Every structure is written in structure tokens, then in C-alpha cells.
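Query structure, 505 C-alpha cells:
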């Protein structure tokens, strides 16, 4: 039996006897044997040394440490390793210590280890922030391997206050662990982490991305197609990725992007080499997870546009009414002072249909925060199923087709686009061409792997000039065809025109 097999076996026993809710309190999700080995294989083993220092923050039962030690003992030049594991869960520390002793006694390497029973973040606060209490020579490591806790914490939690430069709102422990791990690396050291994908876009993680990607270079990204087949014996609906990062300001020309369906099929892996500047771009340092040449072309095609919705005087916003919080104001039938409340179900075949006989599709309220002008909008569903053909699903709302109301309302499970000066019908139809096209849907899927359409991210997407949007809208109105194919055909001519124009210069 291999070292890793033994550690996996003891981990299984722990999982079986420890209630899931209790493990959830610590954000514990255990790495599979196959994933652990894959992560260990991602490291470049230096040839100019015979000893290495390793950090495993949030070590759990020691699965990742075991996988890396197993890898290193097959490297002829490596003779000794020093391993530091952080773990604060009293329930698992005893198992961790037992597992590390087993590894030490069964590896060909000279191994020493230390279990630090301190909070990985707060215990390094002074070092991280460079206060007068900082250690003048803090320990740095050659390698960091980690599966950090996935857990949201309050904005005033001790961990958040320890790393104020990257925190916005209520942070998640996993990206605090990621930044601290990078801090703990030696220059040119490497870290391999399995973490959620959520940090790759959006305003919430902007400060983290900017700092993390300025101090480190991503060399490898691995994607799991399945959301619920990543962690061992866990049904966790989470878009998860593996990243390999080198602590350097020098960026590589390409990033290796691999993908598998689950945590057990690494023999069936797809590999793609993507330009670094395509994957990581813009002032917000979004990470675009491309897996093939077509997706690179999609990004390159739309990134030629210089505008965004806000720069054009437009903005996507989230629907105003949370229906279950305003249940007393909802009505299923029209009555005096009632106004339409639009849901995603009202979006049908590219248009907004009302009424449809849906329960609670009217609202009676004086709260101005729940009401908006009866004007032209593009409605976009906020939530879709992962299996659906499109992530961006939208419908044109034309005010003159819904007369009799000065005000309307929108449920918060849809988004809407409006403008500072209102939208002409041509602009609304032009926006529909964009958001109903294959190109923009693909772009958004690359940008965000979740099933939620986030307004912040949409507002950051590149847009053609307003004159082009209006022209596309006029063309769509003329052809009377709201299909995806129709939108693709119209958009294609403007994208191609832009490309040719740029080539002249």
C-alpha cells in the first residue's frame, strides 16, 4: 500500500464518523486521491538542491502533504523535506499527527514536520502587514500545497481585519489563505491550490486579484466540468479549479489550461495552451478560463471594442422586488393602483409577455425603491440551469406595448438594462442582438462559470459604439426574426467591420 493510500484510508474513516455539519463549520472538504496526485505532479522540482521546505495550510488529515511527499521521494536529488502543517480543528489534529508520523516512518526521505495549531491568517498578521512587531526574517517555503477552507466570514472577523488590503465586504477564507500562502513563498517558489472559481471575476475579489496576480504568475489552471464530483465523498455544488502559481512578477507567455469531468478521470484530460495576456487582462485583472482556440477568438473578437455599458450611459441593474419579503403587497389579479411585477417567466422567445396568469404578477406599493419608470428595457434572466443551452436569456420590453401604467416593478431574479436618458426602441433591440448572440453568451460563460448572471460582470463586458447598437436594432426590427441565428448574422457584420478597421492601423 502506498503512503497516500494509507492516508486516504484513515481520512475515509474520519469522514464516515464525523457529521457533515460539523465538518462544514470548518469549511472542510477533502481532496480525492486522484486530485491530490494531480496537484503534486504540477510542481517543478528544482534540480539544484537536495532539500525542500513545504507548507500545507489548512492541512486537514494530510492528504495533500502525503501526495507531495510521495512525489518527492521519486526525485533522485531530493533527500530531505521540512513540512509545516497548519490546522486548528481539534477533531482532526490527532489524525493529522498520526498520519504525518506514518509518512515520516514510511518514506525514503529524511522528513521533519511541525503542526502549527494557530490560525493561519491571524498568526501572521504582523508579518503580512509589516508592523513593528513583524519577524525580521519570517520563514519562507519552496512549495505550498493547499485545499483551504471554503467559508464566508463577517467583514469584521479577525481574519478579514488581518488582511484589509484585499478585503471587500464579507470575504471568504479561501482567498485570504491564497494570498497569505503566496506571501509565505520564497521568490520563485510555487504553490498549487484547489479553490472555487468565484474569485476570477467581479468587483468583490478585485483587490485580491490585483495584488495576487501582481506578485505571482499563474502557470497552470485545471477546470472540473462537473460541479458536484470534485471532493471526496462530498456533494458540493461548487465551480472549482486548481491553480499553480509561481511567486514572480515575470509573467509567462502562455498558461496551460487542462480540464476533466471529475476528480477521478485524470487519464481523460484535455490540454490547451492559452496566451497569458488573453487569460488575464484589464485593470480589474479578470481571469478568463479559456479551454480552446474558439474561446480565445471569442475574447479577442469582442475585446476589440473599447466601450462598456456604463461608458455608453447604460447600466445593467438587478430587479427591485424581493417577492417573499413583500408578500403583503403582491396581487395575482389586476386591481386599482396595482402595477405589473415582472418575473423571468415573462421573458418568452425574446419578448416580454404580460400578463401570463402567473401568481403574484402584480404589486401594490408606495415604496419608491420597488418601482421604476414604465420605460423601454432589456430584461435578462439572473438564473439559468447549468444544462441550458444559453446563459444569457433576455427579452425586449417596450413600454408602449404595456400602456396604462406609469410605473412597473421587476423581481430580483431578473436583471434589466436602462439608460440615464432612457432607451430608444432601436437601442433596446440592438442590445438584444448582443445579448442573444452566441458570441456574447460564450464570452460570459468564459468570464463566469456560475449559473447566475452578475450585473457587475456584464457591465464590464466590451460593447460596440452606440451608433452600431442602434443600427443593429434597426436591422433586427426590419427582419422580424428574434432567433439566435438572426442575432449572430447581424452582429457578425459589425464585429468583422471593427476587425478590418483595426487592421488598417
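Result returned for the query:
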Amino acid at each position: 500500500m502506498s503512503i497516500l493510500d494509507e492516508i486516504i484510508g484513515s481520512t475515509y474513516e474520519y469522514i464516515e464518523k464525523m457529521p457533515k455539519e460539523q465538518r462544514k463549520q470548518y469549511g472542510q472538504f477533502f481532496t480525492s486521491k486522484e486530485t491530490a496526485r494531480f496537484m503534486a505532479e504540477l510542481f517543478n522540482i528544482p534540480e539544484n538542491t537536495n532539500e525542500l521546505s513545504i507548507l500545507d495550510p489548512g492541512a486537514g488529515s494530510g492528504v495533500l502533504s502525503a501526495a507531495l511527499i510521495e512525489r518527492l521521494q521519486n526525485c533522485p536529488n531530493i533527500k530531505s523535506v521540512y513540512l509545516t502543517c497548519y490546522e486548528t480543528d481539534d477533531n482532526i489534529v490527532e489524525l493529522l499527527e498520526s498520519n504525518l508520523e506514518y509518512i515520516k516512518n514510511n518514506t525514503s526521505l529524511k522528513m521533519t514536520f511541525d503542526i502549527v495549531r494557530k490560525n493561519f491568517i491571524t498568526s501572521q498578521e504582523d508579518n503580512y502587514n509589516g508592523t513593528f512587531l513583524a519577524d525580521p526574517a519570517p520563514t519562507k517555503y519552496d512549495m505550498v500545497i493547499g485545499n483551504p477552507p471554503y467559508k464566508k466570514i463577517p467583514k469584521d472577523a479577525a481574519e478579514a481585519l488581518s488582511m484589509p488590503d484585499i478585503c471587500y465586504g464579507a470575504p471568504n477564507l479561501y482567498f485570504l489563505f491564497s494570498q497569505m500562502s503566496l506571501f509565505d513563498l520564497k521568490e520563485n517558489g510555487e504553490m498549487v491550490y484547489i479553490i472555487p472559481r468565484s474569485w476570477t471575476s467581479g468587483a468583490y475579489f478585485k483587490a485580491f486579484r490585483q495584488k495576487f496576480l501582481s506578485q505571482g504568475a499563474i502557470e497552470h489552471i485545471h477546470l472540473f466540468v462537473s460541479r458536484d464530483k470534485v471532493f471526496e465523498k462530498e456533494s458540493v455544488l461548487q465551480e472549482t479549479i486548481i491553480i499553480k502559481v509561481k511567486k514572480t512578477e515575470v509573467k509567462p507567455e502562455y498558461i496551460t489550461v487542462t480540464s476533466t469531468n471529475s476528480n477521478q478521470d485524470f487519464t481523460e484530460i484535455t490540454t490547451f495552451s492559452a496566451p497569458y495576456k488573453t487569460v488575464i487582462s484589464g485593470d480589474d485583472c479578470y481571469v478568463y478560463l479559456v479551454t480552446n482556440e474558439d474561446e480565445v477568438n471569442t475574447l479577442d473578437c469582442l475585446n476589440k471594442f473599447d466601450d462598456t455599458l456604463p461608458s455608453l450611459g447604460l447600466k445593467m441593474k438587478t430587479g427591485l422586488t424581493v417577492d417573499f419579503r413583500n408578500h403583503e403587497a403582491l396581487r395575482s389579479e389586476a386591481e386599482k393602483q396595482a402595477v405589473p411585477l415582472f418575473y423571468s417567466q415573462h421573458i418568452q422567445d425574446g419578448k416580454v409577455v404580460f400578463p401570463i396568469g402567473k401568481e403574484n404578477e402584480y404589486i401594490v406599493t408606495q415604496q419608491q425603491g420597488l418601482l421604476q419608470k414604465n420605460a423601454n428595457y432589456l430584461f435578462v434572466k439572473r438564473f439559468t440551469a447549468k444544462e441550458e443551452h444559453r446563459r444569457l436569456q433576455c427579452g425586449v420590453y417596450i413600454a408602449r406595448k404595456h400602456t396604462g401604467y406609469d410605473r412597473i416593478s421587476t423581481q430580483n431574479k431578473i436583471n434589466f438594462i436602462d439608460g440615464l436618458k432612457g432607451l430608444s426602441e432601436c437601442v433596446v433591440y440592438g442590445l438584444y442582438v448582443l445579448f442573444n448572440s452566441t458570441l456574447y453568451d460564450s464570452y460570459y460563460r468564459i468570464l463566469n462559470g456560475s449559473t447566475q448572471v452578475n450585473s457587475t460582470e456584464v457591465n464590464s463586458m466590451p460593447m460596440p459604439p452606440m451608433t452600431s447598437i442602434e443600427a443593429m436594432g434597426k436591422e433586427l426590427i426590419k427582419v422580424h426574426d428574434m432567433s439566435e441565428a438572426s442575432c449572430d448574422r447581424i452582429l457578425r457584420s459589425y464585429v468583422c467591420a471593427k476587425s478590418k478597421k483595426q487592421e488598417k492601423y
